Amino acid sequence: MDEVKSRVNLALATLAFGLSFAAWSLLSPLAPQFQRTLHLTDTQTGVLLAVPVLLGSLARIPMGLLADRYGGRKLFTGLLLFNMVPVFFMGTVSSYTMILFWGFWLGMAGSSFAIGIPFVSRWFAAGKQGTALGIYGMGNIGTALAAYAAPWLAGNFGWPYAFWAFVPIMAVAALLFWLLAEDAPGGTRAGSISQSLLVIKREKLSWTFSLFYFVTFGGFVAFSVFLPKLLVDWFSLEKTDAGLRTAGFVVLATAMRPLGGYLADRLGGARVLVMVFAVVPLLALVLAIEALGPSLWPVTVALLATAGLLGLGNGAVFKLVAQYFPRNTGVVTGVVGAAGGLGGFFPPMIMGLVRDHTGSYAIGLALLGAFAATCLALDYGVLMRRTATASESSASTTRPGDRRVADCRRTP
Questions:
Q1: pLDDT in tens, 86-128
Q2: For position 385, what pLDDT does the model report?
Q3: End-to-end CA distance of the chain, in Å?
Q4: What angle do CA 89, 92, 98 make, to 5 degrees?
Q5: Neighbours of 255 (CB within 10 A)
């Protein structure tokens, strides 16, 4: 396959995903301002932050199905054009109800992930998919762009321009994607929708990956969405300062994602996830304890370490999806991606409810540790066992130095 074209399409997909992710995240850095202006409770603010995540999560399932059938070029172009509508009208809202309404449709931008995974994976050989998908996942940097740009635009030009500034940018990106992007030649296309859904019903491993992504990507989204408010509540930071610190969290998690894919290519995704799910519960416990009397430096260290590990986990999970489901990458990506999005939907609401009723975020942070520990047990019980079985079965026909390659080619 043409290496230059592979890289060009990877770059275009990453750009389109990054802009979509920025649009998906625009509400978060402005939430403290909306809370003060509209006199919202913590629970109402949590709902406001969670609403875009809901549609962005659920829409990944049909987007994954459509990506398998029609390819990413048409879908990504159409989605970028659609995103312009809610982004524009978010700059005109004046009530909580209208923010919820347009914030819900803003969530469509989050479904972009399910388009790009099959689009990118079909341009690369199996041994390079983890790295390529990790690079594509760096489009998460759009969250950092929103966290930094939205408060600055709001402070200098008024909050509507925090949304309107992205409209022409997305128009240009849609045009570039339509003109320059290509679907991979001879790319696998799934059968009917019912056949695609049967894969999800039949292959229980897709649900295991869904739980893993619920924690890794869901944790990333939840922190990137809720962190500005949490930092303001804990340390009374200015919204611009909180936005910059959130951007740092996002940048680190995003930078670690391609490393997670690279390590998964070399060591196996299951082994990378063992490290992630073993350490995240400890960090979540630290944050839960700090919630009772937070200090800036311990919180900063714990958050940055969590960001790095969640980024590694995100890269490893989708190496496994492409490895185990090469013919139905889109539909499985849709379901796994939806689970990851829902992992970012519930925590903001739970955190708001917990703080309204207990005065602390400790219980909500402890739940992250409990979910990560559950994933560690599943990783050992399901994936590591599969890896060991595959290694044993290939030992009689494969030279020891080639076992890892054979394992990477194994599909369920």
A1: 999 999 988 899 989 998 999 899 889 889 888 998 898 878 8
A2: 72
A3: 25
A4: 75
A5: 16
At 359, phi and psi to the nearest 5? Answer: 80, 10
**Is residue 86 within a helix (H) or strand (E), and if so which, with residue range?**
helix 72-90
Domain ranges of the chain: 3-182+191-409
- The torsion angles phi and psi of 381, rounded to 5 degrees, stand at -75, -25
The set of residues, in sequence order, having a beta carbon less than 8 Å from that of 386 and lying 6+ positions away, is: 270
**Tokens 């909180």 map to which residue?**
242
Q: What is the SS3 assignment for 27?
A: helix
Locate all alpha helices (DSSP H) within 236-361, ordered by sequence: 239-267, 269-290, 296-324, 329-358
Q: How far apart are CA 111 and CA 63, in angstroms?
A: 7
Beta carbons of 29 and 176 less than 8 angstroms apart: no
What pTM was estimated for this model as a whole? Answer: 0.72
Q: Which two tokens stand for residue 156?
A: 């200098």
Q: Give 36-54 as a DSSP string.
A: HHHT--HHHHHHHHHHHHH
- Which is higher by pLDDT, 16 or 144? 16
The answer to whether 240 touches 361, Cβ cutoff 8 Å, is no
Q: Using CA of residue 70, residue 73, residue 75, residue 78, what is the dihedral sign?
A: negative
CA atoms within 13 A on the CB side of 278: 8
- Report how far residue 67's alpha carbon sits from residue 65's, in angstroms, rounded to the nearest whole number: 5
- Are the beta carbons of 289 and 361 closer than 8 angstroms? no
Q: Are 355 and 361 in contact (CB under 8 A)?
A: yes
> Nearest 10 degrees: CA dihedral of 143, 371, 257, 385?
-160
- Please state the φ and ψ torsions of residue 336, each to the nearest 5 degrees: -65, -40
- Domain at 3-182+191-409, CATH homologous superfamily: MFS general substrate transporter like domains (1.20.1250.20)
